[in-house]
């Protein structure tokens, strides 16, 4: 259910105090009001509202995406002219001795009377700890140079964010008294997205890439409306210099705008059906390596887990020597948010948990539930369980209605009791759940914390996590995007693995 208008007027800073009398905890949604004077200086907010008038119509922002490995970088952008897409790359700001890379262009759509084309280019042979400059050709013109800097290819940091969901504050009432129609919601959420990225990068200037675990945008009914939401998502200038590793959320999955904007590596477009059966309109699974880590990205809007196993198997056959195996998908099979974690969030649990045991997955990154949580180390229980093609219950179902479904999905063992800190050579997999990076929508936590959850938190503020990986360790620390401090209710978690992977 939606938060009442009276509740929605409460600012984030007072949500846990002033709103208590309005039963915030009985509601399933809350949001981050960018227009609140307590949150944003008036001059900054006024300037953004004016800037949005241009941003919302600009579908041609370039997206940087991770490549197949750290020495590659992928680019994707829209244009409205038919031409050979070109990226020029140099180590000089004046583009001296630039190398030219060409790619592919696809005619995709007409919108607002304009014919658009999707352009995709890959550059390779990048070196670590090097500053590059690039330009791109769009609509017959070369862009101004933009800077991209690589960092270490063996020891690196990645930003991990959940559900920016630009436009999800639709229907709320802002502090300025506006009803948040779709365009206004996208405007406000885009502003918050940029603020989160600014905070994260200021504190972590050495980030190598950004992981967004799905629902970059909100509209599931109209592919044209998605475009101004993607315009807001891609607008932050930080995204001109730090590549993205996005994945398909349920709100991205209905249209091909996702795959038109993002140039993901090792996708399975045109591949044999064992890697694509059940694929959504938005695209396919993919994978890449960075340092000693293999990242496998699944579209769990596709419930065909045999497809996902085939992708995992292929990626591991090619890169089985990587010490760290990290799987990412949108729907949380082990989360603690009220709206999804005991309904559609766990529908794939009985199928995916055994796969993560089989392929020795270390870490799973999840979204979807708009809360923060981290599990203990988990394995499957080795028993047979029902396979579900959809959830037979909803978040609003009664406990009695949910009980049989929850029991049938009780497919795990808890193999450690450690809440935070450092754990060495653990068994099993740890599952992380990211809250919204924009605060476009928050959910309550489930009333009773599940036994597999080591810690959880709902501060009703946007958050982000920083993942650090080297040859022997994986660590994650989650921060409040409004303060830059470690998120209340969370503790850093570090895994150390000695030896080599068998």
Largest sheet: 7 strands, mixed
CATH superfamily of the largest domain: Metallo-dependent phosphatases
Supply the number of structural domains.
Answer: 2
List the uncertain runs: 1-27
Nearest-angstrom radius of gyration? Answer: 22 Å
Q: How does CATH name the architecture of the largest domain?
A: 4-Layer Sandwich
User: What is the β-strand count?
Assistant: 25
Average pLDDT level: 92
Structural class: alpha+beta
Structure annotation, total helices: 8
Q: Helicity range of the residues?
A: 10-25%
Highest CATH level, the class of the largest domain: Alpha Beta
- Approximately how much beta-strand content do the residues carry? 25-35%
Distance between the termini: 48 Å
Shape: globular
In order across it, which strands form the biggest sheet?
12-11-10-23-24-25-20
Give the CATH topology of the largest domain. Purple Acid Phosphatase, chain A, domain 2
Secondary structure blueprint with pairings:
Elements: H1 5-8, H2 42-55, E1 63-66, E2 73-79, E3 86-90, E4 99-102, E5 104-111, E6 114-123, E7 131-138, E8 141-142, E9 146-149, E10 156-161, H3 182-203, E11 207-212, H4 223-234, E12 244-246, H5 257-261, E13 286-290, E14 293-297, H6 305-319, E15 324-328, H7 349-358, E16 363-366, E17 372-375, E18 378-380, H8 399-408, E19 412-414, E20 421-424, E21 430-433, E22 453-457, E23 463-469, E24 473-480, E25 493-496
Parallel strand pairs: 10-11, 11-12, 14-15, 15-16, 16-21, 20-25
Antiparallel strand pairs: 1-2, 2-6, 3-4, 3-7, 5-6, 7-8, 7-9, 10-23, 13-14, 17-21, 17-22, 18-19, 23-24, 24-25
């Amino acid at each position: 259910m939606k938060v009442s208008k009276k509740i929605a007027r409460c600012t984030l800073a007072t949500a846990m105090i002033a709103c208590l009398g309005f039963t915030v905890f009985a509601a399933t949604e809350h949001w981050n009001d960018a227009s609140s004077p307590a949150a944003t200086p008036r001059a900054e907010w006024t300037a953004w509202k004016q800037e949005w008038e241009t941003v919302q119509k600009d579908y041609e922002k370039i997206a940087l995406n991770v490549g197949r490995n750290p020495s590659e970088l992928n680019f994707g952008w829209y244009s409205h002219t038919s031409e050979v897409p070109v990226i020029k790359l140099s180590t000089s700001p004046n583009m001296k001795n630039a190398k030219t890379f060409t790619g592919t262009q696809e005619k995709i759509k007409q919108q607002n009377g304009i014919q658009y084309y999707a352009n995709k280019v890959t550059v390779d042979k990048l070196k670590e700890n090097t500053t590059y400059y690039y330009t791109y050709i769009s609509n017959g013109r070369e862009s101004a140079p933009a800077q991209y800097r690589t960092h270490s290819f063996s020891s690196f940091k990645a930003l991990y964010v959940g559900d920016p969901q630009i436009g999800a504050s639709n229907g709320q009432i802002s502090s300025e008294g506006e009803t948040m129609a779709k365009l206004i919601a996208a405007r406000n959420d885009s502003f918050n997205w940029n603020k989160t990225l600014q905070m994260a990068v200021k504190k972590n200037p050495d980030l190598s890439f950004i992981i967004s675990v799905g629902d970059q945008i909100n509209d599931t009914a109209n592919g044209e409306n998605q475009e101004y939401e993607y315009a807001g998502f891609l607008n932050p200038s930080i995204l001109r210099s730090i590549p993205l590793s996005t994945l398909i959320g349920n709100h991205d999955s209905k249209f091909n705008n996702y795959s038109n904007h993002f140039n993901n590596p090792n996708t399975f477009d045109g591949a044999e059906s064992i890697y694509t059966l059940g694929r959504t309109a938005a695209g396919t699974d993919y994978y890449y390596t960075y340092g000693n880590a293999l990242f496998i990205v699944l579209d769990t809007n596709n419930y065909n887990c045999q497809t996902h196993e085939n992708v995992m198997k292929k990626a591991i056959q090619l890169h089985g020597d990587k010490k760290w195996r990290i799987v990412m998908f949108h729907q949380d099979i082990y989360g603690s948010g009220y709206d999804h974690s005991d309904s559609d969030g766990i529908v794939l649990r009985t199928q995916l948990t055994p796969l993560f045991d089989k392929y020795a997955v270390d870490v799973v990154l999840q979204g979807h539930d708009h809360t923060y949580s981290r599990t203990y180390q988990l394995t499957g229980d080795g028993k047979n369980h029902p396979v579900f093609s959809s959830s037979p219950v909803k978040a609003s179902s009664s406990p009695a209605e949910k009980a049989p479904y929850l029991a049938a999905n009780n497919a795990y063992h808890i193999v450690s009791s450690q809440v935070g800190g450092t754990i060495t050579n653990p068994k099993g997999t740890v599952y992380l759940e990211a809250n919204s990076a924009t605060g476009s929508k928050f959910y309550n936590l489930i009333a009773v914390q599940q036994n597999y959850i080591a810690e959880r938190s709902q501060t009703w503020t946007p958050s982000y996590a920083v993942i650090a990986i080297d040859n022997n360790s994986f660590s994650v620390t989650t921060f409040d995007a409004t303060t830059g401090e470690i998120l209340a209710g969370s503790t850093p978690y570090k895994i150390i693995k000695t030896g080599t992977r068998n």
